[in-house]
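Standup notes, structure subgroup. Blocker cleared on the flavin mononucleotide input:
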Amino acid sequence: MDLPAHTANHPEVALVPMVCGLDAVQTICQTWHQRYDRLPDALIVENSQAVGGHIGTTCDDFKGQIERLLPQIQDYLQTQFQVEIPLIAAGGVWDRADVDRMLALGASGVQVGTRFITTTECDADRRYKEAHLNTSSKDVVILPSPVGKPARALRNAFAEKVISGSADLERRCVANCLESCLCRDHRKTYCILQSLANAAAGDIEQGLLFSGANVGRAEEIVSVAEVMAALTGVREAVVV
Ligand SMILES: Cc1cc2nc3c(=O)[nH]c(=O)nc-3n(C[C@H](O)[C@H](O)[C@H](O)COP(=O)(O)O)c2cc1C
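Run returned:
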């Protein structure tokens, strides 16, 4: 809510909040407009049915959400503030057809996460990447996190323990990384930094393998250039 205050002396910094519902857009825009005479420079609009990692708390309650949400946000911004703010759609985008679908709905761009896991350049351990090959959406679960929000990840021994509330979970805080943490403050859930680090280091059974719902389409590990070609539809896509 107070991001504009933090960047008051840095007008070149773009403020791009991530939202997954109209209520979040309304709260951010009204507050920023009143307090700071400012609106977001762009918004990342999450499709909570698909995004990997944390999911906004109230946002997984109906199907086809992004299809409704993008036009709703555009209408709201136009009606209330007479502005068009670029909307970046995130969640479940895999290829050019998905990009085109989001652009047709009014998005100005897309944010892609899961598809880049199975790239050569992804710096996670090879076993993390291989866990994403030949899986299916049936292997994806929603589990609680110490942040206090649900999160989407691949099913493994760790995820099963978290879901069942097993006492057999490491609850030692390793880095004091969150302002509010169920693990550090209440000895609940698990240490997220440790769990994600375990996964990135290749412990695919006892690590937390964040993943979007749109898994199962990757058959091999490819280069980022190949992913960009699939996303843009341009064979010689330039990777900066
Ligand atoms: C492994 C993984 C880690 C992620 N970590 C974060 C994160 O730390 N912060 C964040 O805002 N989003 C995070 N995300 C969400 C992505 O930024 C992105 O919005 C989302 O995954 C897009 O959906 P897709 O994975 O279906 O392409 C993560 C996603 C994945 C797959």
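Discussed briefly. The chain is about 35% helix and 10% strand.
Next: hand off to the docking folks.
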